Amino acid sequence: MFLKNEAQTAFQNTKSVYKEYISGMTRERMGKDFYKDTDRLKQLYEEAILEGAEQRNPEDIPGHLKFLRLFSALTERLNPTRRLLFGLSVIAFVSHYLFGVLQLTGFILFYELLLPFAFGSMLILLLVELLEKSDVKREIDLARDIQLSLLPGTEFQSTSLEIFSFATTAKEVGGDYVDIIETESGIYVIIADVSGKGLSAALYMVRMQALVHLIIEKNQPSPKQLFLELNDYVKSGIADKTFVTACAAFFPAQEDFFTFARAGHNAPILFNKERDVTFDLRSDGFALGMTSSANLKLHLQEKKFQFGSGDSVLFYTDGLTEARNEVGEEYGADRLDAILSIYGSLHAKTIVRKIQSSLENFIGREKPGDDVTFTCVHRSG
Questions:
Q1: What is residue 197's predicted lDDT score, i.e. its pLDDT?
Q2: What is the Rg, in whole angstroms, of the alpha carbon atoms belonging to the chain?
Q3: What is the distance between the alpha carbons of residues 69 and 164, in angstroms, rounded to a whole number?
């Protein structure tokens, strides 16, 4: 048959639109979004009320003044044109109500237009804001793609080392950094966590990555010297309060050891196959950007660890151990230690997959509150 059943098509189109409209409207998702939006409004309210109230108890501020401050804080987020349209729509709403109460509707020629104008203006504002938010999301998605393209591949293999990494961000872009840099003398493994989350942390991470590559390609420094030079750059901005925790390890070519330094970061876990034990790689050191390079040089330790055939070492950020499940329990370092104790002699990819599976089973439907990044180095020969 070549005749098209328009009634059926219209029904299917309506059904398709309805399904698309209600997609994602689960009870759990709506509950989380509601609490998230409520917390954001509460934060906005507190910021608006407390502004300029340092010398005054917020509870003593009159209600009308609180309302005006909140209204001002909301409208400041609109550009001048949208602010004008929003103001006119509010005036139209209020005028429509007052004219009705005062029974002046018969004397106002444009009374019937006030309510449609107010609703129409609000609808236009909502649509424009949604379009702008959509454009911003596309730009952030592009930034995410660029950031991910700068990270090393998931898997790296040399003559004797296997390295496998995992990374996921709490937001569209993140501040965790992991890198594997191969030189003629050996392989550098760096993992770092920039304070904060989101776009600002991601931009700082990109800057850190460029500096790390520049310093290593130019000087091929030891892990300690790498951190001292990075600290000079991080501390170069006096007004910059950002700090970076990091670990750096250098695996010399054709050697069965690695050198290691830790700048305030989570202690990596080393599995020793010969002794069948795991232990934390603890060493002293401040986070980058928290103190002067002279002071960091005095306190930052560089250590050497044996790394024989079958040994593995796991580097990770705090987003892994601090990931929480539905009841608020943290994943913790003990679970990582247990996984390394059982699977530490296996390939790096297997160890990372075991940790990923364990984490996913632990958090269930919860999303990590921070970026989660970890990488495993295994000596295969």
A1: 66
A2: 28
A3: 52
End-to-end Cα separation, the chain, in angstroms: 69
Which are the contacts of 366, defined by CB distance < 8 A and separation ≥ 6? 323, 324, 325, 326
Position 117 scores a pLDDT of: 86
Q: What's the pLDDT at 59?
A: 67
Q: Is 281 left (phi over 0), alpha (psi -120 to 50) or beta?
A: beta
pLDDT for position 357: 94
Q: What is the pLDDT of residue 1?
A: 45
CA 54 to mean position of chain CA atoms: 32
Rounded-to-integer distance, Cα 216 and Cα 183, Å: 9
Ordered structural domains, the chain, with CATH: 65-150 (no CATH), 153-379 (3.60.40.10)
The confidence score (pLDDT) of residue 95 equals 84
| Two tokens, residue 328 | 């608020």
In angstroms, what CA-CA distances link 305 with 191, 192, 256, 372? Answer: 18, 20, 9, 26
User: Cα 81 to the chain's mean position, in Å?
Assistant: 33
**Partners of 157 in beta bridges:** 162
Single-letter code of the amino acid located at 119? F
74 close to 125: Cβ distance less than 8 angstroms? no
- pLDDT at position 17, please? 63
Alpha carbon distance 58, 195 (integer Å): 31
In order, the DSSP letters of 263-298 are EBPPPPEEEETTTTEEEE-----PPBTSS-HHHHHH
Per the CB < 8 A criterion, the answer to whether 126 and 182 are in contact is no
Q: Name residues of the chain where pLDDT drops below 70.
A: 1-15, 17-18, 20-21, 23-24, 50-60, 143-144, 146-151, 171-174, 196-198, 236-241, 381
Q: Which long-range contacts (CB under 8 A, 24 or more apart) does 275-281 make?
A: 277/341, 278/337, 278/340, 278/341, 278/344, 281/305, 281/313
3-state secondary structure of 259: strand
Q: What is the pLDDT of residue 228?
A: 93
Under 8 Å between Cβ of 273 and 310:
yes
